[in-house]
Design a protein that fits this description.
The chain is an alpha+beta fold and 149 residues long. 23% of the residues lie in helices and 26% in strands. The strands form two sheets. A four-stranded antiparallel sheet has the order 1-2-4-3, with helices on both faces. A hairpin with a 5-residue loop joins strand 6 (125-126) and strand 7 (132-137). The radius of gyration is 17 Å and the shape is globular.
Length: 149
């Protein structure tokens, strides 16, 4: 399901929970909110369960959006019952993820984390200049072994 109608985008926005680590931030302000959404759906008539295809699909869409200069966020914290009602989804369609898309309004800095098992080390945060810092584990911490010539 895709939407860029402002009224529908506002209704979708109301079902989303933003940035749980940023306790004092309720989400984007009016005028900074996404201008479009993609709701990834599971058709239970096609397959009983899903495992990873929606993650691959979400990442592919986000990479495509970024290549066009758009910003985005993959949201799993969704009031699925409310959103299903808003979208008038039939029973056989289940909401997997919501992708929020639009013109980026903030600066994001990706930072290296060298502690592969420290869950707290990957908590994102904002500094006083409203720069959004997103810690990510380094490639060296993610690769278990190398067998290269």
């Amino acid at each position: 399901m895709v939407a860029n109608d402002p009224a529908m985008c506002s209704r979708i926005y109301s079902t989303l929970a933003w940035a749980a680590y940023l306790k004092d931030w309720p989400g984007p302000d009016e005028g900074e909110r996404p201008s479009a959404y993609v709701v990834l759906l599971h058709d239970k008539r096609v397959a009983e369960k899903v495992e990873w295809d929606h993650g691959i699909m979400a990442q592919t869409i986000m990479l495509g959006a970024a290549s066009k200069g758009l910003g985005g966020c993959i949201l799993a914290s969704v009031d699925r019952t409310s959103l299903a009602g808003i979208l008038e989804l039939p029973e056989h369609l289940a909401i997997l993820l919501v992708l929020a898309l639009g013109a980026p309004k903030e600066k994001v800095v990706v930072e290296d984390v060298d502690e592969p098992t420290d869950r707290g080390a990957i908590r994102y945060w904002r500094d006083d200049a409203r720069v959004h810092h997103v810690p990510k584990r380094t490639l060296n911490t993610l690769i278990h072994a190398r067998y290269v010539a």
